[in-house]
Amino acid sequence: QVQLVESGGGLVQAGGSLRLSCAVSGRAFSNYDMGWFRQAPGKEREFVAAIRWIGTTYYADSVKGRFTISRDNTKKMVYLQMNSLKPEDTAVYYCAAKPTRSTAIMTTEMSYGNWGQGTQVTVSS
C-alpha cells in the first residue's frame, strides 16, 4: 500500500502548459505501475496516462502528442507534463498506483487500488 499526493495544478490559458507531480510514500515505489486519471464536473473519471515500473507508457487518444508521463524512482515521484492545454482538459487530476505484478489493464481506473486526493486543473479560453 502506498500514499499519493498530487500537486502542480492551477489556472492556465488555452495553449499553455502545466506540470503535475505525484509524491509517493509507504512502499517500494519501483514495484508499482503509476497512472493519471481526471474527472470533469458531471462526468465520469477517465484515463489520461500511465507508466509501468519498467518505463512503458500509455496515453489516452485525447492527450497523445500533448501530455508526457514520466517517473523518477530515486525521488519517488511521477510527473505529467501537459502542453497545448485545451478547455476540455479542465478537470481534477488524480494520481493512482497498482502493483506492477498485476496484469490488470493499465488504462482502466478499476485496476488501481491507491489514489491521491487530486489537484485541480482549469484551462480558460
Spans of at least 5 consecutive residues whose pLDDT stays below 50 are: none
Distance between the termini: 40 Å
Order of helices and strands: EEEEEEEEEEE
Helix fraction, binned, reads under 10%
Main sheet specs: 7 strands, mixed
Q: How many runs of DSSP E, i.e. beta strands? A: 11
Average pLDDT rating: 94
Q: Strand-residue fraction?
A: over 45%
What does the overall shape look like? globular
Q: Briefly note the structural class of the backbone.
A: mainly beta
Number of distinct helices? 0
Gyration radius from CA atoms, angstroms: 13 Å
Keywords, please?
single chain; 125 residues; mainly beta; four-stranded antiparallel sheet; 11 strands
Question: What's this entry about, in short?
Answer:
The chain is mainly beta and 125 residues long. It is 0% helix and 50% strand.
List the helices and strands and how they pair.
Blueprint: E1 3-7, E2 10-13, E3 18-25, E4 32-39, E5 46-51, E6 57-59, E7 67-72, E8 77-82, E9 91-99, E10 114-115, E11 119-124
Parallel strand pairs: 2-11
Antiparallel strand pairs: 1-3, 3-8, 4-5, 4-9, 5-6, 7-8, 9-10, 9-11
Would you mind describing this structure in some detail?
By secondary structure, this protein is mostly beta strands. 0% of the residues lie in helices and 50% in strands. It contains no helices and eleven strands. It has strands spanning 3-7, 10-13, 18-25, 32-39, 46-51, 57-59, 67-72, 77-82, 91-99, 114-115, 119-124. Strands 2, 4, 5, 6, 9, 10 and 11 form a seven-stranded mixed sheet that branches. The protein has a four-stranded antiparallel sheet with strand order 1-3-8-7, with no helix packed on it. Strand 4 and strand 5 (46-51) form a beta hairpin. The chain is globular. The N and C termini lie far apart (40 Å). The relative contact order is 0.32.
